């Protein structure tokens, strides 16, 4: 069980990391003090529309979602709770976001990318095998334990696997209000890409492709 003290400590550490990341944020610099997202707006812009400053309250700058562990009773054995502008309107235009990662024993966050952000991961509890693959197809992987920090460069394929003897928890910070996430297996086999493309790309039979697609 993650103690309140250790959880709060992880947040303080990530605040320091975020203060550094903000100087190199991938999102555009804000042009006013804040731009709390109007989640009810249907206007499409590069980001989220600001709601009226007169309607902004202190509650717009608070998010309680990371205090609660996610439900890891699923096929992957993991759950990611995001805190991006879509869930936390006060982050809009500020170029930062966070997420909580919960793992059952053996749980996996499958290989994925964040096209708009670098991610820094702080292990609150447990042991994780983490890694990313460079554009030269070189794997950089290691095991990180409670208190360790690991960074995933922007846009590169990466993963996290719980290799400890119990549950694990981590907190991620990203230098975008909307980092985006693309799970590679789901993108390839669950998006409707032609079977012929997948058969040729992976050297698989039609039957094998159909079997994998059935899982998505």
From TrEMBL:
Keyword Secreted set for record: yes
Cupin type-1 domain ranges (all copies): 64-210
Domain of life: Eukaryota
Pfam families (alphabetical): Cupin_1
Main location as per UniProt: secreted
Signal peptide, first to last residue: 1-28
Compartments in which it is found: Secreted, Extracellular space, Apoplast
Keywords for this protein: Apoplast, Manganese, Metal-binding, Secreted, Signal
InterPro entries: Cupin_1, Germin, Germin_Mn-BS, RmlC-like_jellyroll, RmlC_Cupin_sf
Protein family according to the UniProt entry: Belongs to the germin family.
PANTHER family noted in UniProt: GERMIN-LIKE PROTEIN SUBFAMILY 3 MEMBER 3
Name this polypeptide is given: Germin-like protein
């Amino acid at each position: 069980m993650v103690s309140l003290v250790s959880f709060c400590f992880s947040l303080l550490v990530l605040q320091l990391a975020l203060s550094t990341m903000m100087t190199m944020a991938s999102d555009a610099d804000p042009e006013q003090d804040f731009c709390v997202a109007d989640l009810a707006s249907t206007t499409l812009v590069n980001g989220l529309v600001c709601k009226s400053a007169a309607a902004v309250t202190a509650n717009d700058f608070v998010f309680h979602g990371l205090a609660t562990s996610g439900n890891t009773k699923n096929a992957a054995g993991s759950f990611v709770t995001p805190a991006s502008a879509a869930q936390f309107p006060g982050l809009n235009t500020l170029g930062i976001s966070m997420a909580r990662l919960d793992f059952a024993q053996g749980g996996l966050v499958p290989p994925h990318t964040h096209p708009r952000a670098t991610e820094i991961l702080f292990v609150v509890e447990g042991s994780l095998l983490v890694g990313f693959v460079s554009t030269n197809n070189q794997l950089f992987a290691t095991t990180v334990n409670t208190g360790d920090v690991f960074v995933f460069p922007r846009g590169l394929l990466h993963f996290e696997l719980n290799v400890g003897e119990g549950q694990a928890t981590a907190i991620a910070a990203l230098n975008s209000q909307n980092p985006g996430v693309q799970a590679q297996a789901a993108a390839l086999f669950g998006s409707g890409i032609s079977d012929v493309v997948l058969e040729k790309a992976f050297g698989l039979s039609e039957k094998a492709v159909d079997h994998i697609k059935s899982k998505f």
